[in-house]
Amino acid sequence: MNTAKRRTVIAGNWKMNFTPSEAKAFIEEIKPMVAGKDNCDIVFCAPFVSIAAAMEAAKGSNIKIGAENVHFEDHGAFTGEVSAKMLKEIGVEYVLVGHSERRQYFGETDETVNLRTKAALAAGMKVILCLGEVKEQRLSGITDEVVGMQTKLDLAGISVEDLKNVIIAYEPVWAIGTGLTATPEQAEETCAVIRRVVASLYGDDAAEAMTIQYGGSMNDKNAAELLAKTNVDGGLIGGASLVAEKFTAIVDAAQ
Ligand code: PEP
User: Which residue of 220, 237, 241, 250 sits with most ligand 1 atoms within 8 Å of its CB, as the best mutation to test the pocket?
Assistant: First the structure.
């Protein structure tokens, strides 16, 4: 991990877990465990209804709370959606965009991922932009092309200035929630590919400054090896973000 040039970010994705009271209890439990661990940013992305309770519990700590999705319009006839303006008003700093579960189950495309990213950035939030190949693509040897194309499409029209508020989470879809983890070498190689594509679009300085996380069954056992890689600047963590000891061990691995 190249901490000299970029900030390490350890982010949890709670998915559809933790009611408001459970979110509050979890943050209260983990707050003292990660206190003073300032070599990385610590973020938990919560279900919409649990954001306020998590934010309240996190007050005065080094924990930041994010959302798991955002719509691209400000307001209007989009039943069930939540806008960037709404999230911003309650103090949300981070938002996940393009998670593979959104792409797989809710019809998210690179075009809508791009629109959502732009809306969140325009509202002044930081985006954790998720992308990655499915198993068949890796087995066919086209991972680099797939993540390269996603990077280009998902960042289309985003300025170099706004790019400073974008974190890319490289998440091989075959590794998410499966217990299968990319090897540190695979994570390093593909994060480096993404960084090269960012460099081709925005220049070397912008690419070197960008935080690129790995996600996909990262846990307390494998985090140190993954985070030791030069191009892996943090983690996006699902399952292990629901267990305070496991998540804290990942934060420790990033120190
Ligand atoms: C995720 O939800 O982004 C994720 C990486 O999940 P898990 O850590 O459970 O594989």
Answer: 237
